[in-house]
């Protein structure tokens, strides 16, 4: 036999892609001060997950407006298909919000992907891929919602619960910390948030009976700064809301799996927490189960919990309260707006968590009723073993994680609404680490779905207009100073609505459904609206009638013709 | 009817699940050998993977690592056809082209625990059998574990 041919040493897969492997140093000077003023002083950029710390998902850009949006056209498309087998190959979704800094876009995919793109041309500049175990516990699909950018670094979490800092110019890893225990069923999906010298992240895995936590790391070194558990240990404040005997607190869930908002004047971080575990079997965890299904206000310097408001004490319907807490001011007062899975919108005083107003935002609510001051009357829940109980909204919620927007111009909230019911049948089970811990069999209605984009006046809770859809609206909304509201549909259409009337002004079929967050930016004097399109995630939970919707993975950037 | 574990390998062979153009068109995934990586004094791990003639299977097809970290692989194509390997690795996957009767190396980094697939992304090598698994044993670092009493596992 002849000698073996020398095949050499394996190379980075990305070197065989035409990708240059470097991006301009635009992120070096992004710091806390710039992020503080993100909307007002540099509206051309989208510097942080919600566009600004207040979570309004509102942009001052108005080149694209109600008069000309009909001429909007694709400027470029970025696509990425996987090679080989990946975790959740049937459930991945393109859920991210892109970040843009001075013409460079940083965006995540699923399965550990991070890309830097030229925001004018769509050219890929570098890529990072964190190898994800095929057997990672992912309750709701292989997803990630984006990055944070500061001081020359790109911060991202991986499906196997790592927190990474990448060099923003090369995509190479600068530091890597393990933030969760994959053997316990923990994972991570949210976009990190940079505040001062720290990067804030939350854990995921509430369907596996973990103990939720919010963490902060030094953004330069990766040194762990603090951890705040969302479920108190015995003896800690709030522990009286858990059974005194047993270890239900240790598997209580409450994961803060969506990026917080932040008020710099109050120095308070507002984060929502997820469902208690087991989701539907409340008998094993009598009590209110703090701090699950809550908005918690946290000091970002040390993780101290300052106040809390629990939307769903002793949740029995999987009504996570993780969705955004939008900060807005009216009449000289500091408020916080939140649209809960339970079908109700909340306006809280964000200085102390006191209720200002509660109002329904979805048509069909029959699990219970909440009055305008937050008083709850429970009507039905899966309380008997083996007995099916149907309720509205289903566990996907009247709105899931996908974000509402608030326009200071119109003083209205814009809400993506899912009107879907479900049947849960309680089935008690023992807890085993790493195994789903729901306590019920659940089938969400695949027929009789409805959805809409609704505009609400936070001063009254009144619905001002509604744009109706035949299927639920399962993607975040973007509001702009052009008096436009952008919203994607599960069937692939990307829509522009008149922010004052709800009239549909423009539509583009992206080829795959929307379960992500559109954003806008400007480069070279041209405004773009970007949206990831790639249907997936926990579809069986929020829109099972669209379970077979076409998969995809494309990022579209739209602009007016030059 | 379920098959006792002890009889599984015999049944796989009897049915022809572990060869080309036997029971199926190709070789059913993960029906190859299981091997363990060696760990050096510096903590780096080493393994050799071969592609056997006319079998379209990596040998071992399931490679066990005692923990996460760096792994150096020698990969040898003993087959009479050209294949390749795309290994998972933090940062970027590692690719090597393997013409007939060739030998090369790859260095990868993986977290633990969990398992990862690698494959030969050419034609349908992956479906015919050239898809292997790397299993990483162990626990996450102590600082990443939840502050709670030891919990029962399956």
Outline the structure in words.
The complex is a heterodimer of chains A (562) and B (154). The longest helix of chain A has 5 residues, at 32-36. Chain A is mainly beta. The model of chain A has no long low-confidence stretch (mean pLDDT 97). Chain A contains three helices and 40 strands. In chain A, the strands form ten sheets. In chain A, strands 3-34-35-36-37 form a five-stranded mixed beta sheet, with no helix packed on it. In chain A, strands 4-40-39-38 form a four-stranded antiparallel beta sheet, with no helix packed on it. Chain B is mainly beta and 154 residues long. In chain B, the strands form three sheets. In chain B, strands 2, 3, 4, 6 and 9 form a five-stranded mixed beta sheet that branches. A four-stranded mixed beta sheet of chain B has the order 1-5-11-10. At the A-B interface, β1, β2, β8 and β12 of A face β6, β7, β8, β9 and β10 of B. β1 of chain A pairs parallel with β9 (102-110) of chain B.
How does the SSE layout of this entry go?
The complex is a heterodimer of chains A (562) and B (154).
Chain A (H helix, E strand, L loop, with lengths): L4 E5 L1 E2 L19 H5 L1 H4 L16 E2 L13 E7 L19 E3 L2 E5 L4 E6 L5 E6 L18 E3 L2 E5 L4 E6 L5 E6 L14 E3 L2 E5 L10 E6 L5 E6 L31 E3 L4 E5 L21 E5 L6 E6 L15 E5 L2 E7 L4 E6 L5 E6 L7 E3 L5 E3 L9 E4 L13 E3 L4 E8 L2 E5 L13 E5 L5 E8 L4 E8 L7 E4 L3 E5 L4 E6 L5 E6 L9 E5 L2 E8 L5 H4 L11 E6 L3
Parallel strand pairs in A: 3-34
Antiparallel strand pairs in A: 4-40, 5-6, 6-7, 7-8, 9-10, 10-11, 11-12, 13-14, 14-15, 15-16, 17-18, 18-19, 19-20, 21-22, 22-23, 23-24, 25-26, 27-30, 28-29, 29-32, 30-31, 32-33, 34-35, 35-36, 36-37, 38-39, 39-40
Chain B lengths: L4 H11 L18 E3 L1 E2 L5 E7 L6 E2 L2 E4 L3 E9 L5 E5 L6 E5 L3 E9 L3 E6 L5 H4 L2 E6 L18
Parallel strand pairs in B: 1-5, 3-6, 5-11
Antiparallel strand pairs in B: 2-3, 3-4, 6-9, 7-8, 10-11
């Amino acid at each position: 036999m002849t000698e073996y041919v020398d095949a050499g040493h394996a190379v980075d897969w990305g070197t065989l892609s035409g990708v240059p492997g470097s991006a301009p140093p635009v992120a070096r000077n992004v710091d806390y001060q710039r992020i503080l003023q993100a909307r007002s002083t540099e509206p051309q950029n989208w510097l942080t997950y919600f566009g600004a710390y207040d979570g309004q998902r509102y942009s001052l850009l108005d080149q694209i407006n109600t008069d000309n949006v009909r001429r909007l056209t694709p400027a470029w498309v970025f696509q990425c298909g996987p090679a080989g087998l990946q975790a959740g190959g049937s459930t991945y979704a393109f859920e991210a919000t892109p970040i843009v800094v001075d013409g460079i876009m940083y965006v995540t995919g699923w399965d550990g992907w991070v890309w830097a793109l030229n925001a004018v041309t769509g050219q890929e500049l570098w890529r990072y891929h964190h190898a994800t175990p095929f057997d990672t516990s992912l309750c709701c699909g292989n997803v990630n919602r984006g990055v944070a950018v500061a001081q020359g670094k790109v911060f991202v979490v991986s499906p196997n619960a790592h927190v990474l800092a990448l060099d923003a110019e090369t995509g190479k890893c600068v530091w890597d910390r393990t933030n969760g225990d994959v053997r316990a069923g923990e994972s991570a999906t949210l976009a990190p948030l940079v505040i001062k010298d720290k990067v804030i992240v939350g854990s995921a895995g509430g369907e596996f009976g973990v103990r939720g936590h919010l963490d902060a790391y030094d953004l330069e070194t990766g040194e762990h700064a603090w951890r705040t558990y969302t479920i108190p240990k015995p003896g800690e404040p709030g522990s009286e809301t858990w059974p005194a005997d047993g270890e239900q607190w240790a598997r209580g869930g409450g994961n803060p799996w969506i990026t917080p908002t932040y008020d710099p004047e109050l120095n308070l971080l507002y984060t929502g927490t997820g469902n208690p575990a087991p989701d539907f079997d409340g008998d094993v965890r009598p009590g209110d189960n703090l701090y699950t299904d809550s908005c918690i206000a946290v000091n970002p310097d040390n993780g101290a919990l300052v106040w809390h408001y629990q939307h769903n004490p002793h949740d029995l319907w999987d009504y996570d309260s993780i969705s955004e807490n939008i900060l807005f001011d009216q009449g000289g007062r500091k408020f916080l707006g939140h649209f809960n899975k339970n079908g109700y919108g909340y306006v809280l005083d964000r200085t102390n968590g006191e209720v200002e107003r509660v109002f329904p935002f979805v048509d069909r609510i029959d699990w219970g009723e909440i009055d305008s001051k937050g008083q709850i009357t429970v009507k039905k829940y899966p309380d008997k073993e083996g007995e099916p109980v149907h309720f509205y909204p289903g566990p996907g919620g009247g709105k899931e994680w996908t974000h509402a927007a608030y326009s200071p111009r119109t003083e209205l909230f814009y809400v993506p609404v899912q009107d879907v019911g479900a049947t849960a049948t309680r089935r008690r089970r023992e807890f085993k680490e790493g195994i789903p811990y729901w306590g019920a069999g659940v089938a969400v209605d695949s027929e009789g779905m409805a959805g809409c984009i609704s505009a609400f006046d936070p001063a009254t809770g009144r619905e001002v207009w509604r744009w109706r859809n035949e299927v639920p609206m399962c993607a975040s909304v973007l509001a702009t100073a052009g008096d436009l509201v952008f919203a994607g549909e599960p069937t692939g259409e990307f829509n522009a609505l008149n922010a004052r009337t709800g009239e549909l002004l423009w539509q583009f079929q992206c080829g795959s459904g929307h379960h992500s967050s559109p954003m806008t930016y400007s480069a070279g004097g041209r405004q773009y609206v970007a949206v990831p399109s790639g249907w997936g995630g926990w579809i069986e939970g929020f829109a099972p009638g669209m379970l077979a919707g076409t998969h995809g993975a494309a990022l579209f950037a739209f602009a007016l013709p030059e | 009817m379920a098959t006792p574990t002890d009889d599984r390998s015999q049944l796989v062979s009897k049915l022809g699940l572990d060869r080309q153009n036997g029971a199926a068109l190709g070789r059913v995934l993960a029906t190859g050998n299981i091997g363990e990586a060696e760990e050096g004094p510096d903590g780096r791990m080493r393994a050799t993977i071969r592609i056997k003639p006319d079998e379209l299977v990596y040998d071992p097809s399931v490679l066990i690592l005692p923990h996460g970290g760096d792994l150096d692989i020698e990969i040898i194509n003993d087959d009479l056809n050209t294949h390749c390997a795309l290994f998972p690795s933090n940062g970027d996957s590692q690719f090597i082209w393997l013409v007939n009767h060739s030998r090369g190396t790859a260095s990868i980094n993986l977290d633990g625990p969990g398992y990862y697939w690698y494959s030969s992304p050419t034609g349908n090598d992956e479906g015919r059998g050239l898809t292997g698994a790397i299993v990483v044993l162990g626990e996450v670092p102590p600082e990443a574990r939840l502050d709670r009493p030891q919990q029962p596992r399956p």
